Amino acid sequence: MSDSLQRLKQAVADSNITQVANKIEVPRCTLSLVINDKYPANPKNILDKFERAYSDVNCPFVNRALTRQECRDRSTAPRPFGGTAKTAWWDACQGCEHKSKGA
Length: 103
Hints:
Largest sheet: 2 strands, antiparallel
Order of helices and strands: HHHHEEHHH
Structural class: mainly alpha
Number of strands: 2
Strand content: 5-15%
Strand order of the largest sheet: 1-2
Shape: elongated
Radius of gyration: 16 Å
Low-confidence stretches: none
C-alpha cells in the first residue's frame, strides 16, 4: 500500500469519508472505492488530489508550515483591513512561490 493511500485512509478515519471527499473534491462513492481497494482504475489522480489538499506548505513569511487550505485562503482572500501585520502577510502571499500551489 502506498504512503499516500495510507494517509488517505487515516484522514478518513480521523474525520469521515464525506468530509475528505468534499475537501479533495471527488465524489464520496469514488473515495469509498479507493480506500476499500476496489477502484477499477489507477487511483493516482485521486491520491494526487488528496496530497494537494492535505500536505503542508512552508510559509516563508511566518517561517512555519501551513496547510494548503490555509495558504489558499490567505492568498485568495480580499486585502485585509485593520492591521499592518495582516496586510504585510497578505502582500507577501501575493508574490509567493506557493500561491499557485496553494491557491
